[in-house]
Amino acid sequence: MEYPVLVPNMKGLERAMDAGVRSIALFTAASETFNKRNINMSIEESFENYAPVAVRARGEGMRVRGYVSTAFGCPYEGDVAPEKVLEVCARLLDLGCYEVSVGDTIGVGTPMQVQGVVGMLLQVIPATRLAMHFHDTRGTALANTLAALEMGIATFDASAGGLGGCPYAPGASGNLATEDLVYMLDGMAIESGVDLNRLVAASAIIAPYLDHPLPGRYLQACTRAASKTVAPASAAVQ
Which of 137, 230, 235, 237, CA to CA, is 20 to 30 A from 100? Predict the structure, then answer.
């Protein structure tokens, strides 16, 4: 089990090292405006900031993962050019990231759009160095996952019950629910290494602490099924 943590700068890296972290994540965006709102840097400034962080982390034997936000649309700029997504992904890999996660931060992507963006990325970057990160704001996360899976992508970010969101992406909901992803993979006879029943049980632990139901569809189906289970009526006494 690996627990990568987001590291915004050298100070963050040092704190991660003090905590015994062995895997970090560097995050930027394909949209200038979103990057400014999210980390208060331009895209270029973020790479200047991350370069020494990546060098030191790798020198310490840490794994470095990259994230690209707003790859399929920006809440401030609208459409994002696939060419910009490719440029940012390539630069993260040049920093030494072993993998780059390509994010639909506000959940506007569609399967056809995924095919276009992923198709362009695969012309330059091996599928083994790409991951996808879909939010389910408009109910397309699972369909987008299938589109990417069929193109050879094998790594997908997901969250228990569909938890998540972003304070700088107005209206964005959580990530693709891990239960929904695993249910689909099980049905396709694709081994994920995740036990679906135990995953549902884990998601149920956090549910009571939230002020809203978890949005994952498989989890909701399990919850409804459990609530409809009624004990047999007692026999009447004559």
Answer: 137
